[in-house]
Design goal:
Elements (H helix, E strand, L loop, with lengths): L1 H5 L5 H43 L2 H61 L2 H33 L2 H28 L13 H21 L1
Length: 217
Amino acid sequence: MIDFLFGQRKTPAELLRQHQHALNRAVRDLDRERTKMEGQEKKLIADIKKSAKQGQMSACKIMAKDLVRTRRYIQKFYQMRTQLQAVGLRIQTMRSNQAMADAMKGVTKAMRGMNKSVNLPEISRIMMDFERESEVMNMKEEMMNDAIDDAVEEEDDEEETEAIVNQVLDEIGISLNQQLVDAPTGKIGTKTSEPAEAILVDDDAALQERLNNLRRD
């Protein structure tokens, strides 16, 4: 009912904007009046010079008084304009503060809504579920990797590898045992049919030959 009779109630921001427009309009009116007074000042100066040339000193004095009053009014217009600009600056500052307060109010409302929507127990449950599912996924991944390794790796590889190693060792053992059997059994200080250094060379050669045969096989 009150809004219907007196109009809709304006917000503080709207009131500040209205006062700012009024101050700007007042400043423009003062500038317009000051411009008129400055034009009148120039006219009075010209009339004073004209009367002085004609020797009308009484008229010059009267117009000189009007010139002094006109210049005082012009100075007052400048002072009033400065004061209005200062008030306008304060209003602009208040509008900026009001806008900042409105923005902070909106942000606060949004933050309050976000805080209400955040469900900490639900988030904790989600994180626990995520951790559990991650562990299950890691276990399945390890099982799949083991299954793939078992499928790719042949069962005979390890047995074949052990057979080759045993064969090499057997060949080396047989060679060494054979060379030890064929070696001379003379006593220390007696002469043998071949020098000891030649026997060692033959042993190395025989061992190398068997290793070469093994690689070819």
